[in-house]
Amino acid sequence: MLRQCTHRFDSDFSQGEHTITNLSQRLWRSVKDEYMYLRAYESASAVRIGLNRYFNFYNSRRSHSSFDGPTLDQVYFKSLTQTKAAKSMKIQSTYKAEDDCSNKRGSSA
Q1: Which residues contact 75 (CB under 8 A, 6 or more apart)?
Q2: pLDDT for 14
Q3: All structural domains of the chain with their residue ranges
Q4: CA 35, CA 51: separation in Å to the nearest integer?
Q5: Nearest residue to 72 via CA among 49, 87, 56
Q6: Cβ neighbours of 66 (radius 10 Å)
Q7: At what angle do helices 44-60 and 2-34 cross, to 10 degrees?
Q8: Burial label, 51 (beta-carbon count in 10 A; 0-12, 13-18, 19+)
Q9: What is the per-residue pLDDT for 5?
Q10: Other CB atoms closer than 10 Å to residue 36's CB: what's the count?
């Protein structure tokens, strides 16, 4: 019984780990192909500065085919705006429900 449970846990965990590994490998391939192999660096600090510039570009100006063209920043901030709007609507509906309850209590008294 323990062996079955452990096997199921391991296989579930490894699927998530596999996805993360694929994403990180794809990102690293992009970094190497689009940036690292195209430049010669003289020091580790130059690499750090260059990678910082590349990731700023990667997030804010590089379009991504997996999202049909927008940048990662555009996708992130759009989802953030939608999340805030959804939370705002939920809060408003909660207040409306509370108002409805208090109006019903007040009218029945």
Answers
A1: 64, 67
A2: 56
A3: 75-109
A4: 8
A5: 56
A6: 8
A7: 100
A8: middle
A9: 46
A10: 15
Count CB neighbours of 26 within 10 A. Answer: 11
- Retrieve residue 86's tokens: 């959804």
H-assigned helices in 1-109: 2-34, 44-60, 72-108
pLDDT for residue 91: 67
DSSP 8-state code for residue 7: H
* Residue position matching structure tokens 């959804």: 86
* Rounded Cα gap, residues 13 and 96, in angstroms: 42
Q: How far is CA 7 from CA 1, 11, 14, 15, in A?
A: 10, 6, 10, 12
| pLDDT (0 to 100) of residue 43 | 94
Spell out the per-residue pLDDT of the chain, length 109, in tens: 444 444 454 555 556 677 778 888 988 999 999 999 999 989 999 999 999 999 999 888 888 877 888 898 898 888 888 777 777 776 666 666 556 666 666 555 5
